[in-house]
Each structure stands twice: as structure tokens, then as C-alpha cells.
Design a protein that fits this description.
By secondary structure, the protein is mostly helical. It contains 5 helices and 2 strands; from the N terminus they run αββαααα. It folds into 2 domains: about 90 residues, no CATH class; about 40 residues, no CATH class. It is elongated and about 65 Å long. It starts with a helix and ends with a helix.
Amino acid sequence: MDKYKSLEYVINGIQAAEKIRNTYNTQLRSDSNILVKAAGLPALIEVMQIIAEFSPDIYKKSLGEVARKSNLYGNAYRNIKNHLKTSKSRSLDKDMLINTLDVIKPIMDNRQKVVIDKVLQIFQILDS
């Protein structure tokens, strides 16, 4: 590895550290001189995206994919949690089933997404 590439990696590391520090500083808020961490998982996902952005090319793609999947699963978890909270008081009906399929669809693999899309299309056809 030549010295210019090494220097580039060091500079990227310093830039990533600065962006991560800024991310955490914006995520913290002060209440009566006590620092309170606002959002843990979104901040962690953002840090992972920053690390992927400033990583060497051989790691950039895999780290970016991990950050993307973490964001996807984090959002799906929140959506499923909210959906379950609202559905506790309701009985299972067609609208709730459609909403449930929409909520879990982002974390499914391609084959399962196709099946969910077909089921949703069947519901649309039956409604019309």
C-alpha cells in the first residue's frame, strides 16, 4: 500500500470521527445541566452510515448494505410495534390484515414480497 493511500485512509478516519462527534452532539440535549441521549437506534444507524461512507472501497459496499438493512429492520420494528398497539383493541378484519401485510413487507425477501403483492392485488380485485 502506498503512502498516499494510507494518508487518505487516515484523513477519511478523521473526517468520519468528526461527523460522528457532530451526530452525537446534535442527538444530545441538555435538561438542567444533565445530558440526555435522545434516540439511540437512529443515531447508531446514522453512525454506521457515516462509517460506511468513509471506509475504504473494499469495505464500503458491505458496510453500506449493513447500514441500509439496519435502518430497514429498525423502521419495520417500529411500524410493527405501533401496528400491534393499535390492533390490540380491534378484531381481525380485512383492513387490519392488509395493513399487517404492508407493515411486514419491507423485511421480507423478494419471493415473500411477491406473494404479499399478489395477496394485496387479490384484495383489491375483490373490493372492486
